[in-house]
Write a structure and sequence with these properties.
With 198 residues, the chain is α/β, with parallel strands linked by helices. The protein has one domain: Maf protein (Alpha-Beta Complex). Strands 1, 2, 3, 4, 5, 6 and 7 form a 7-stranded mixed β-sheet that branches. A hairpin with a 2-residue loop joins β3 and β4. α3 crosses α4. It is elongated.
Length: 198
């Protein structure tokens, strides 16, 4: 007999996060949170992604009072500078030229909120990528093929973007795509939800 648990809601409109969460084989729904994602003055990248992950979960909790809600947010940083989503081709070229041959840190904020009890778990999961030295032609060819303009850092690691990397380092590779599943499984277990016992 399957064990019951509160409805699981992903507080995101990201197709990448939906695909990742679907790997766990659990039923869930997605709700797009209405959250201002602007960075606060002097806010660190770690604080930013943690705050936004929790803000997204809280925004959805207002209309879903009996659910387990997952919020997540990600930024890329290089030499202390935050790299956002490029939004267009020219900015993506600029970003990839900037990261060529360098180490980039990806920080993913994760929040699991039990909206009925108010219990909230929040963390920031780091992941590091060393980029190959890329030519302008390689960058243009990559962007024309994959068009990752809504992705922090201007690439899709689950696709052709893997060709841009020299080395990857971190505990939870799914965090690079935007949802740290290893950490999420731990959070769910602390709420009495065992992914392998449903």
């Amino acid at each position: 007999m399957p064990k019951s648990h509160p409805p699981l809601i992903l507080a995101s409109s990201s197709p990448f996060r939906r695909e990742l969460l679907s790997r766990l084989g659990m039923e869930f729904s997605s709700v797009s949170p209405d959250v201002d994602e602007s960075r606060l003055p002097n806010e660190t990248a770690q604080a930013l992604v943690s705050r936004l992950a929790e803000s997204k979960a809280r925004a959805v909790a207002e209309t879903h009072p009996e659910a387990l809600i997952i919020g997540s947010d990600q930024v890329a940083t290089i030499e202390g500078q935050v790299l956002g989503k490029p939004g267009n081709h020219d900015k993506a070229v600029e970003q990839l030229m900037q990261v060529s041959g360098k180490r980039v840190n990806f920080l993913t904020g994760l929040c699991l909120m039990h909206s009925s009890s108010g219990r909230t778990q929040v963390l920031c999961e780091p992941f590091h990528v060393e980029f190959r030295t890329l030519t302008r032609t390689e960058i243009e060819n990559y962007l024309n093929r994959e068009q990752p303009y809504n992705c922090a850092g201007s690439f899709k690691s689950e696709g052709l973007g893997i060709c841009l990397f020299q080395r990857m380092e971190g505990d939870d590779p799914s965090s690079l795509i935007g949802l740290p599943l290893i950490r999420l499984i731990d959070m769910l277990r602390s709420e009495g939800v065992d992914v392998l016992d449903l």
